[in-house]
Amino acid sequence: MKRKIILLTIYVILFTGTAMFISSCAKEDPEPPAPTAATIQLVSGGAQAATAETALASQVEVLVKDQDGTVFAGAKVTFAVTEGSVSATTVFTNAQGKASVTWTLGSTVGSQTLIATAYKADNTTPLSGSPLSITATANAIILEATSIAYVAGGNQSAYINAQLGSPVSVIVKDQFGAALQGVTVNFSVTEGAVSSATDITDAGGHASVNWTLGSTGGTQTLTVKAFKADGTTPLSGSPVTVNATASIKEAASIELTSGGDQTGVAGEELGLQIVVLVKDPEGNAFEGKTVNFTVTEGSLTVASAVTNANGFAAVKWTLGLTEGLQTLTASAFKADGTTALTGSPLLITATGLQPVSSDLVTDYDDNKYQTVKIGDQIWMAEDLRVTHYSDGTEIPLITNTAAWAAVPNNRTMAYAYDNFDSNSGHVSYSWGGATKSLSGSNSNPSGLQGVCPTGWHLPSALEVNELVTILGDKPVAGGKMKESGTTHWLTPNTGATNSSGFNAVPSAVLNRTGVFSANGLNSAYWTASQPGAILATTYVLYYNKESIWLGDIDLDFGRSVRCVKD
Q1: Domain ranges of the chain
Q2: Cis omega before residue 126 (within 30°)?
Q3: CATH number attached to the domain at 145-247
Q4: Where are the beta strands (DSSP E) in 145-283?
Q5: Which pLDDT does position 467 carry in this prediction?
Q6: 26 pLDDT more than 50
Q7: H or E element: which one contains 467?
Q8: Is 540 within 8 Å of 507 (Cβ atoms)?
Q9: For the whole model, what pTM was predicted?
Q10: Quick check: 443 and 462 in contact, CB under 8 A?
């Protein structure tokens, strides 16, 4: 019995174990869960600093891990910035679980932010640590000159020692390729000159100078340099070399500008200089050309003269003793010394008149007068101031305005001192005083002695016209008759050369009411001609004109007298 119990127990145990074994073999172990993205964290690239609008030195890198803390590949990470830019807005993590971008900062100086965001598989649940806020500091942009380049003004041409027509200019740019203001640029030439050795670039980045070429013909060079902030490192493109061509300026032509066709006393210096002008091929004044002067007779102050900055060369001419036409020759040559300039030689003429006679003419009052021969006429070279006719008859003296105004039509013989002042030394005659109350004459010669000394007469209008014709006609005759300078005449005493030797000086003009006026302005003379009952012909010289006026006025005026030899 006992044995049965033991066997049964063993059987139960074996059965139970077998069942349990079978049961155990029938149940499999459970599968482990799949890895999913769980966390995101910054690896590197945070808290950097760089110049605004430039890329950070290092990329911003993040790391994604799964639920077991293992690196997770293929996770989608988005990157966004408030300003500036990133190299990619979406990046998937690599096999090492990392995603990275290059971050270019915006223009705002100070702290800037990048946000890195990643989600779980449902695309709504952010990973632990997401979003990541990453900061960087944007520093102010420091602009630096990096390059210089030619802009304009090269390959110009000009004469030696002349300034080029346009300035030479360059442009300086910064590291971003933009024009940069405030950079010092240096200019230098081997010869010649620049308007400034340095110039500061303007708002457009430009610096410029005017360039005056040196004295050597051919190619000349200007060098332009600029440096970085350290003062020693040249900018890219520096030095800039600019060339120009210098040509040797050549005289081309010569012409007379003044002093021709003068009339003067033979043996005396003409009143005006002979002035010639030398020009270059473009018609500009040519400085530094030698002009040679020669005369057939007489003498010159210099045998040659060099043109000044205005192209002028001048000489004073003393006529020879021969009466009539005399010639001065002005000649100039090109640089070869043999090719004459256009217009060379210049032949310049002047007329020599008989010198003032050494024989003086004397009036009744024993006043003595110089005389001058002009053409075939011999004139007094001074105004008449006699107070008696040649027969001894005294001419009535008028001493005040009222007395002059009372003279009937001035046919009465009368005279007055200028401004009724006997110390003036100058006399004005009434028409009657000049003619001795005789009828006028328009003959040539007039035959009317009047107030003139014996052997002399009052000239007719025809005789005055003959004089004017000899002196080159009315537009210029006045200047040749007037005393030169402003000792007696008021400024400007236009055209006065006294080349004729007539030596007219101004006098006060006595009008019909007995009032003197125009002191120093005019010189007015009676003629013997009387075209009407109340008119007589007069000739007038002016302080501000080169011309002479010949015309008719009322008999009521007072005038000076010049006599002509019979």
Answers
A1: 37-139, 145-247, 253-353, 357-565
A2: no
A3: 2.60.40.10
A4: 145-152, 156-159, 168-174, 184-189, 193-194, 198-200, 206-209, 211-212, 218-225, 240-247, 253-258, 262-265, 274-279
A5: 93
A6: no
A7: helix 461-470
A8: no
A9: 0.45
A10: yes
Whether 37-139 and 253-353 share one fold: the answer is: yes
Euclidean distance between CA atoms 486 and 549, whole angstroms? 21
Range with the poorest average pLDDT among 90-99, 423-432, 437-446, 453-462: 423-432
pLDDT at 30: 67
pLDDT tens digits for range 468-485: 999 989 999 999 999 888
Sign of the torsion formed by the C-alpha atoms of 496, 498, 504 and 506: positive
Token pair, residue 381, equals: 């070279």
- Give Cβ neighbours of residue 4 (< 8 Å, ≥ 6 apart): none
Are 98 and 77 contacting, i.e. CB atoms less than 8 angstroms apart? no
What residues contact residue 150 under an 8 Å CB cut-off, 6+ apart? 170, 224, 240, 242
Question: Tell me, which fold does domain 253-353 have in CATH?
Answer: Immunoglobulin-like (2.60.40)
**37-139: which CATH architecture?**
Sandwich (2.60)
Q: Classify the phi-psi angles of 498: left when phi > 0, otherwise alpha if psi is within -120 to 50, otherwise beta.
A: left
Residues 222-261 have pLDDT tens digits of 999 999 999 999 999 999 999 999 988 789 999 999 999 8
Report d(CA 113, CA 32) in Å as an integer.
Answer: 40
Both tokens assigned to 338: 């043999």
- Summarize pLDDT for 299-349 with one digit per residue, the tens: 999 999 999 999 999 999 999 877 788 999 999 999 889 999 999 999 999
Nearest to 519 by CA among 537, 507, 510: 507
